[in-house]
Amino acid sequence: IIFHNVGSLGNLSVETFRMENVEELRQYYDLNVFKVISLNTQFLKIFEEVEDRVIIVNITSLCAIKPMGGMAYYCSGKAAREMYFKVLAEEKKNIRVLNYAPGPVETSMIDYIVSEAVNENLKDVFVSFKNQGSLLKPEITAKKCVKILLAGKFGPGEHVDFFDD
């Protein structure tokens, strides 16, 4: 089993229509997409002879399937990664692939959004999550992921969110 959990938000201080720093974009996609694909490829090479027992978990986000203003880097990176794993699941039907969205988790990423985002609506959403106590503890969402994996009731490359039944 391999968990792909790398995730950075990217530059929250630039609006989508002003994203012109190509080097910054390359660095973002290199970490959040390309290196994940490369690592996964090496993992599959090592376990090729037992790939019917391989489980791949991509930690994704609602942002992979629903755009959120002010988070173009993050949304597009998560969407690209999720689609890669869906295509992999389509091509390698004997490998179990789960795209798990852990929900809004209480991490330093939330503080970064609140302090760095130029999009006021984005800030408001996460300030509200914090103030209402709606953020999930990491161990709670991790337990839910394990429960989903143990039940095995997810389709190839399926996007499963913490809040799904």
TrEMBL record:
Its main location: cytoplasm. Keywords: Cytoplasm, NADP, Oxidoreductase. It is found in: Cytoplasm. Transmembrane segments: none annotated. Coiled coil: none annotated. One of its GO terms (biological process) is tetrahydrobiopterin biosynthetic process. One of its GO terms (molecular function) is sepiapterin reductase (NADP+) activity. It comes from the Eukaryota. GO terms for cellular component: cytoplasm. SUPFAM superfamilies: NAD(P)-binding Rossmann-fold domains. This is Sepiapterin reductase. It comes from Iaspis temesa.
